[in-house]
Amino acid sequence: MVKNNEYNSDSIKILEGLEAVRKRPGMYIGSTDGRGLHHLVYEIVDNAVDEALGGFGDEINVTIHENNAITVQDFGRGMPVGMHESGKPTPEVILTVLHAGGKFGQGGYATSGGLHGVGSSVVNALSESLQVTIVREGHKWEEDFVDGGKPVGTLRDLGKTKEHTGTILTFKPDANIFSTTVYKYETLAERLRESAFLMSGVKFTLTDERVDPIRHEAYHYDKGLEAFVGFLNEDKGTIGSIMTFEGQQEGIIVDVAAQYNDGYSETLLSFVNNVRTQDGGTHEAGFRSAWTKAFNEYARRTNLLKDKDKNLEGSDVREGLSAVISLRVPEQYLQFEGQTKDKLGTPEARGIVDAIVNETLSRFLMENGDFGQNLIRKALRAREAREAARKARDESRTGRSKNAKERLLSGKLSPAQSKNAAKNELFLVEGDSAGGSAKQGRDRKFQAILPLRGKVLNTEKAKLADILKNEEISTLIYAIGGGVGADFKVADAAFDKIIIMTDADDDGAHIQTLLLTFFYKYMRPLIEEGKIYIALPPLYRVKFGSKKHDDQFAWTNDELETITSQTTGRYELTRFKGLGEMNASLLWETTMDPESRTLIRVKIDDGVLAEKRVTTLMGDKVEPRRNWIEANVSFTLDEAGSILDTVDGDSNSSAVFEKTRQKQKNMQSKTTATKAIPKQSDTQPKITTWQNDATSSDTNESTNLNLF
């Protein structure tokens, strides 16, 4: 390796202005994938929210234009338009200078959620074009920027106007920076809906001009956090009424709403100055501590916990709890861990939230004795289930359980030869037939095969104790390792990739959904860390000659149409109705070989939406599921298609299938099945409610699916 020993003053580079943002965008917005793309919108919306929090403006409008440019309009005071002391127009300073804004002194905002005051300038830096329009003091002003924040001319006075004051900012993200520049309607809708819940009396709208007819929704809630919790529990069986707590200490305002449901998971959402803190922080720590403490003190006061009994753990008392925490934190106390505000670091917040929640919850439990005692009994049942789950995890590591583990896995799991968990893969394969081909075709060094023989349990409807008695689920738990439920440790899992490999039909989709539900409910860290995948076997093989390298494969009906329309010669068309129809070498070549396969990584972009979809589609209540299906799905008699099929144009239409039927005449028998085709392009191609996000992870594993 050749070393360059030149290290002098010429080696030191200063990144001027917004150049630093373009050079290292991840430092400012977290990533340059879909998550970072949507973060740009959040930053501008957060600025508008800051105006509304200050009492200026009661409406914020967001528009997705046909070219995926974004417009955010507020009706606040409008950016100042005078000359800044730097000699530039103030809007230009705000939009081109890092750490310039009204959030650093005490005169602009009492509380703010902006990105350390750099949000709008970062958006400008990462956009190919940006235009700001300001209505202030009876005049309309405008300025344009291109190529990452370069001003085009200067601030222009467009003349007098009677329009309401405010700021309109339109930007188009730079395709050279982001791996995708296509916005997801549902992702933005969820963010605006959350903001509307948090800001009673402020109206948020979202318009999508990319579809015909134009899609438009408005979000406006008068009951705030109470309405938010009602939304979270909408399709669940609720227990008791919604509890609300509020208080203030040292200028920090705390609002909490919570309600129990008959489910087994906890949903806790936290916000600081209207910004979601996805990774929690000191305020969540204070809430959890207070909630556990108040319930244990009440349980002992009412003798439901005896002196000899251990205290209930936090997961016991929060089972089935849906809660929202909202803090207003003054600028002088505001500390986030990391630039993207995902985790609150303010030390004072923990003690303040703990004190307010503990006092108000303790009083509530004493004033509602019967309800409080029912919740304690519920927590005791949760503890029993937790201890059973922990026992199952411990047994998977002890010699005492080796016989049970070997009995469950014997004849089922074909293990990998390597013990390197960082490289090993586990294929969950539908049926013994496909499992046999997979076992023969795999690379034994690092690929393990587990055929799924029985029916996979719907774990959304079952208690953990019953889940652990199910043989298929128990086999899965033992094979993966790491435990189950609250005690699951992703670091202890035996595989780096868990790959679901099923037939491309409705039964296969059903199995995928049941498995994803289990992973979501009881091994969620596997999804959160990107370790759950769906294999994508081809639907068709088009054979043009006798040589194997002449074969072409199609994963969607569109791809098949493209291949067959480009040839005038003879060809042989094979439709794979199941994995079992592929021999071992073909399955390896198309679906299992890391050099040539395509895997779909499952991820969760929006936890609230994922939880609601799991509850709606997999829960006990029939009516919400029927309503969702009627609103989102139309049924046609057609071939079951690929998960990558789209609904634009004729890509999922009978016309395509009819053409392939004519071309396949006399080649093979055909099977007609009922297929669910969503009505809208932003819903999913099967009732399994997934959504495509063509974001690259690497060459052959290039597609992500948002879970529900």
TrEMBL record:
Pfam families membership: DNA_gyraseB, DNA_gyraseB_C, HATPase_c, Toprim
Extent of Polar residues compositional bias: 665-708
Catalytic activity: ATP-dependent breakage, passage and rejoining of double-stranded DNA
InterPro entries in UniProt: DNA_gyrase_B_C, HATPase_C_sf, HATPase_dom, ParE_type2, Ribosomal_Su5_D2-typ_SF, Ribsml_uS5_D2-typ_fold_subgr, Topo_IIA, Topo_IIA-like_dom_sf
GO CC aspect terms: chromosome
Entry keyword Magnesium: yes
Chain positions recorded as ATP binding sites: 7, 47, 74, 114-120, 341
Role according to the record: Topoisomerase IV is essential for chromosome segregation. It relaxes supercoiled DNA. Performs the decatenation events required during the replication of a circular DNA molecule.
SMART domains: HATPase_c, TOP2c
Residue span of region Disordered: 387-417, 660-708
Subunit composition and interactions: Heterotetramer composed of ParC and ParE.
Name of the molecule in the record: DNA topoisomerase 4 subunit B
Family: Belongs to the type II topoisomerase family. ParE type 2 subfamily. Belongs to the type II topoisomerase GyrB family.
UniProt biased composition (Basic and acidic residues): 387-409
SUPFAM superfamilies found in the cross-reference section: ATPase domain of HSP90 chaperone/DNA topoisomerase II/histidine kinase, Ribosomal protein S5 domain 2-like, Type II DNA topoisomerase
GO biological process: chromosome segregation; DNA topological change
Single GO molecular function: metal ion binding
